[in-house]
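Exercise: predict the fold of this chain.
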Amino acid sequence: MTNLSPHQITSNEQLEALFDTVGATSVKKEVPYIHPHYRAMIEASPFAVLATHGPDGLDASPRGDAPGFIVVEDEKTLLLPERRGNNRVDSLRNILFDPQVGLLFLIPGKGETLRVNGRATISVDPALLDRLAVDGKPPKCVLHIAVDTVYFQCARAITRSQLWQRARTDIASGIPSPGTILAALTNAEVDGQKYDSELPARQRATLY
């Protein structure tokens, strides 16, 4: 039997005692549909994180394109085109197992983020693929997301992180490159320098 730390929270009662009472506005901001103000946030967002659950656990995956790339079809429906990627399709496999999804929308320069929870299905309807094509290239498929809840997240996390402040080159310069990471993880089976030198052109050629 696992010995629990005396400092480990193990019940809702302990958890609730740790935090203040939920403010009224934190409850009132959650609605079961896409309010016009929430629609404006979605249509301004060029980046979102898609959370899914599958047989192997949880997954959070980035999605990005021009602002409004996730289409508000109506107040209860979102359309998320699946563009070219690494072909792992972890999120899509998870959706086949469990349709529940979560989305976190970020808007550059704005502290508030938007959270959407719903249920997704995967569509390859030719008319829908053509409608969501970019530069004549349709997505591989489209996630049709039935919205359950929508609410904005306050700006504290973005403010604390200073995410939208001027780029910190001193931080970025210390991060290993993709090629360096792959070379280390494969015991140099992957040529890291070659991978890094070819990566920008490969990404440009395979965006859509």
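Check your answer against the key: The beta strands are 47-54, 57-64, 71-74, 77-82, 100-106, 113-123, 141-153.
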